[in-house]
Amino acid sequence: MLKNPLKVGLPILFLLTVLLNNSYSLPLVCQVEINQKIKNPSFVFEGFKNNTPYKAVRRSSPDEDILEKALNEEFVSFARSEGFEIINFADYELIKNQQKFQNTGLFEEDNVPKPGKLKGSKYVLSGSIDNIFIEKKSNSKLKEGLMENLGIIGWAGAAVMEKLEKRKIEVKLSLKLINAESGETLFQRTIKAKSKEKFNYENLPEKYEAIKKVALKGLSRLTKELVAFYPQKAKVLKVKETSGKIYVFINKGKLDGIKKGDKFKIFRPEREFFKEENIDICNFVEIPVRLKIIDVKDRISIGKLEGKKKFFKEVEANFLVEKIK
Known about the structure:
Layout: H1 5-21, H2 28-37, E1 42-50, E2 57-58, E3 61-65, H3 66-81, E4 85-87, H4 89-102, E5 123-134, H5 140-149, H6 151-164, E6 166-179, E7 185-198, H7 204-229, E8 233-242, E9 245-250, E10 263-274, E11 279-296, E12 301-307, E13 320-323
Parallel strand pairs: 1-4, 1-5
Antiparallel strand pairs: 2-3, 5-6, 6-7, 8-9, 8-13, 9-12, 10-11, 10-13, 11-12
C-alpha cells in the first residue's frame, strides 16, 4: 500500500487537468459528424460519353473513342490528385450486370445492391460531350481569290493558309453526380469551352488533336467546380507552439491530395441540443484565421496560422479544417 496516496494522487490529478485544458473535449455527436465530413468523397465513375458525330477510334482499340479516352484519363488523374476515390467504369459495369440479374424477380428487392454499393460508394458520376462546333470556312474569299488569280501558286498559297490559319472550336461538356440509392442529382454542370486553334481541317488527326485540346480546357473548369462543391476536409490532430510560432497538424497528407501552399478555413465544433424537437446536432463555427500548409507527409500535414494573432490560441485538437479554393 502507498503510505501517502495524496503525494501520488495530486500530481496525477494535476496532469489530467492540464491535458483536459489543452485539448478540446469533443462531444460524441460532433465526433460522428467530423468522421463523416473528413472522409474523402468516393465516386463510381461511368466515364464521359461522346454524343456528337465527331468520333474517332484507333485500329488497336475499335471500341474506344479517342475523345472519351482522353477526357476519362485526365479526369481520373485530376480527381485522384485532389483526394477523391474514383472507382472505374469497368467495375461499375459489373455492378449493373449483377443488378439486372438480381432484378429478374428471383431475389427480394431489399437484397438487390444499389449501384456503387458493392464498391463502397453510393455516388455515381458521369460526363458527356454534348456538342462540338468547328468553324469550317475561314478567310474563304481570300483563298478563292488566290486560287482564281494566281493559278498553281495561288492553289499552293491557299493550301498553306488552310493549314496554318486558326479556326474557332467550341466544345460543350456536362458532368453529373447522383446519389445512386435515392436517384437525387447532387451536382450538375454544363460548360462551353471555346478557343481558336491552328490545324488543317481536312487532316483528321490534326482536327481531333485540336478538338481534344479545347475539350480538356473545358474539363479543367468542370473538375474545379466539382472540387469546389466537395472541398477537402480534415481534422486537427494537435497544435504545437515553438519559439512563439503556432503549428497545426492535420490528419491528411500527400496521399489525400494535400499540397504545400494549400490554405484551410478552421471550424470549432459545438454540440447543440434542441429540446422541443429532441434533436442533437453539431454546429461548426468558423474561426477568423487561416491555416497554410508548409510541410506534407503521406498522411499528415503541418501548417502555420495566418490572420489575427489574438485568435490563434483558440485553435485546438479535433477542430475541423476545410480547404479553400
